[in-house]
């Protein structure tokens, strides 16, 4: 039986991380040398050798990424960043190695099985996209660009991690916030309460605080995290990527990036954004009008509504129109119960068991480890790191720790969130279900011969679909009643959940338009020459959002997806279209139907990236995916 990765004690983390990186790079270099010295290697030998190289590099980069984003010791985070630079430099050299490219190009895929032939085609495509076939000067510049791009990317992320802002206000300026939140935020010796821009602080404040001046102060801080420092970093990152795309023969970075996604072209991205924006237009304006009119009851002179007031008055509309009191809803979602409920729900749905590993070494006391068991066999391990702290990744994401390879290594993943420790907002519950979906995909799809296809290894504009679909279980009355209970032990009433769903549907049109603003921004930045990102932000917000720009704000400086997703933020909505279609296969009255759930697990999740995403979905649905289910949902 395979054993999970033996993580170090926290005080040994830096030495362990450096050693893991050194050993992995040495193994990769040795395999490269052996492949080059082989006499007329077969295609099977080439793909097997390449798999060994990718396993070594993947193991090093996964460990480096997790530690750089989560470890409480700044020296370990810096060691992770340094390891990533060395791994990236090795990978760049690999992609520009003409001798290796010639070896790969010389073999025939005749006689290879499906996965081997698919991997060989991907290797060849990667070589072409790396620029191996360019002249020596161009290859040298591409190598330099890769180093500069990684440095800019790390700087952008580090500035967000370290850029937490605060406001300091009198206790009376926090009127309307829940009692448990206020208890966790006592006044200091000066009689002031410090509130940070971290989600558990700022999200409740924006939703419940009756004092507009306080909400406005927090809005300005939230929308200026990592400004002005990241303004220059982002411009530099965009320019580096555009130069790389140009050297490789592409008109824009968006064209280069889209080529390997389902959408295929940069032009198609803008067409998709416009299609969603048009579909959401009527609903967006209708619901915005409702919120504005509610605001005008308190502020008669208001002519428009911004993000200073949107969450607050949106909650009031849900409370007054749909009888959804978000503060009452919170009382059913104690963090510990939600975490256990999530494990129970997903275990039942996917035929898995999550077994706590109490003695597993972890990098912080908040982190919990679980073995993943299926049919009495351990198939992976997961780590949950769910609360904010200084120096930690500020959003929510799943990180690979180890990619599964059949007979070689178990898939292991880390869920990194910034959730409340006590009573949770329901939105936080949905986020937890969403991100856990990535973790399930990583583990269930981790039984692959080739690491290239392990886990969440599909086209990038599909990876969100399984997680977005899992959100549906966080809205089901029966599912929620199994773990969402108040202090008296009473489960959340089904009627309340139904009202919550109706309240959630309110505003989905303007939320879709906001998402298209983000997508339009990411596309525009990587399509048109940039000198003033804030100006581009204003233009895209005016074009797609139904809410106006707030002067003096620079949201893009903390929008981490502008780095990781670059021009591809559209993928969230693209994936949602597919998620809604896949969910249509489930019985809404029995979301645990074993036949449908197991077929979904085995046809969509288990294959990892061994087939194109469109084929996986068609295999599950029995037809190609369509826009219909999403359009129907949006119109409701």
TrEMBL record:
Pfam families: Peptidase_M3. It comes from the Bacteria. Residues 206-632 form the Peptidase M3A/M3B catalytic domain. Keywords: Hydrolase, Metal-binding, Metalloprotease, Protease, Zinc. Its cofactor is Zn(2+). Transmembrane segments: none annotated. Binds 1 zinc ion. One of its GO terms (molecular function) is metalloendopeptidase activity. One of its GO terms (biological process) is peptide metabolic process. Belongs to the peptidase M3 family. This is Thimet oligopeptidase.
């Amino acid at each position: 039986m395979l054993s999970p990765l033996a993580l170090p004690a926290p005080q040994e983390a830096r030495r362990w991380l450096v050693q893991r990186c050194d050993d992995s790079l040495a193994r990769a270099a040795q395999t490269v040398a052996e492949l080059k010295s082989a006499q007329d290697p077969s295609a099977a030998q080439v793909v097997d050798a390449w798999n060994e190289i990718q396993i070594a590099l993947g193991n090093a980069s996964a460990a480096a990424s997790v530690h750089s984003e989560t470890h409480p010791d700044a020296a370990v985070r810096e060691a992770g960043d340094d390891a990533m630079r060395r791994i990236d430099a090795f990978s760049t050299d690999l992609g520009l190695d003409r001798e290796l490219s010639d070896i790969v190009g010389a073999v025939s895929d005749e006689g290879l099985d499906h996965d081997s032939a698919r991997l060989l085609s991907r290797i060849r495509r990667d070589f072409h996209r790396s620029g191996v076939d360019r002249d020596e000067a161009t290859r040298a510049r591409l190598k330099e660009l890769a180093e500069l791009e990684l440095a800019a990317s790390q700087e952008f992320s580090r500035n967000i991690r370290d850029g937490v802002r605060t406001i300091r206000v009198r206790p009376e300026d926090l009127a309307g916030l829940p009692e448990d939140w206020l208890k966790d935020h006592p006044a200091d010796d000066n009689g002031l309460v410090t509130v940070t821009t971290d989600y558990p602080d700022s999200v409740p404040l924006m939703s419940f605080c009756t004092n507009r001046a306080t909400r406005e102060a927090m809005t300005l801080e939230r929308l200026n995290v990592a400004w002005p420092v990241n303004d220059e970093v982002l411009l530099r990152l965009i320019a580096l990527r555009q130069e790389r795309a140009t050297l490789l023969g592409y008109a824009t970075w968006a064209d280069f990036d889209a080529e390997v996604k389902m959408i295929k072209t940069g032009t198609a991205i803008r067409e998709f954004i416009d299609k969603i924006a048009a579909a959401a237009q009527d609903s967006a304006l209708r619901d915005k009008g409702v919120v504005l009119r509610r605001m005008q009851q308190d502020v008669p002179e208001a002519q428009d509504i911004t993000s200073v007031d949107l969450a607050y008055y949106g909650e009031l509309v849900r409370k007054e129109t749909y009888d959804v009191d978000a503060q009452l809803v919170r009382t059913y979602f104690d963090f510990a119960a939600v975490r256990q409920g999530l494990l129970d729900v997903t275990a039942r749905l996917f035929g898995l068991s999550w077994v706590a590993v109490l003695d597993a070494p972890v990098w912080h006391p908040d982190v919990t480890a679980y073995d993943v068991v299926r049919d009495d066999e351990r198939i992976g391990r997961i780590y949950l790191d769910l609360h904010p702290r200084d120096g930690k990744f500020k959003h929510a994401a799943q990180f690979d720790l180890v990619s599964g390879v059949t007979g070689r290594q178990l898939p292991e993943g880390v869920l990194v969130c910034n959730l409340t420790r006590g009573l949770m907002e329901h939105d936080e519950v949905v986020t937890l279900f969403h991100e856990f979906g990535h973790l399930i995909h990583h583990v269930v799809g981790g039984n692959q011969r080739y690491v290239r296809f392990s886990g969440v290894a599909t086209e990038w504009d599909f990876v969100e679909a399984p997680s977005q679909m899992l959100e549906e279980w966080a809205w089901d009355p029966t599912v929620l009643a199994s773990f969402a209970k108040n202090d008296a032990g009473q489960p959340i009433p089904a009627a309340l959940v139904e009202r919550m769903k109706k309240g959630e549907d309110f505003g989905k049109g303007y939320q879709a338009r906001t998402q298209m603003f983000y997508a339009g921004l990411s596309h525009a930045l990587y399509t048109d020459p940039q000198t003033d990102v804030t100006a581009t932000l204003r233009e895209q917000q005016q074009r797609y959002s139904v809410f106006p720009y707030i002067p003096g704000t620079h949201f893009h400086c903390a929008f981490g997806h502008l780095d990781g997703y670059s021009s591809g933020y559209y993928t969230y909505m693209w994936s949602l279209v597919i998620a809604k279609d896949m969910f249509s296969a489930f019985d809404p009255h029995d979301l645990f139907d074993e036949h449908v759930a197991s077929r979904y697990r085995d046809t969509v999740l288990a294959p990892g990236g061994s087939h194109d995403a469109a084929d996986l979905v068609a295999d599950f649905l029995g037809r190609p995916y369509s826009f219909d289910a999403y359009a129907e949902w949006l119109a409701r």
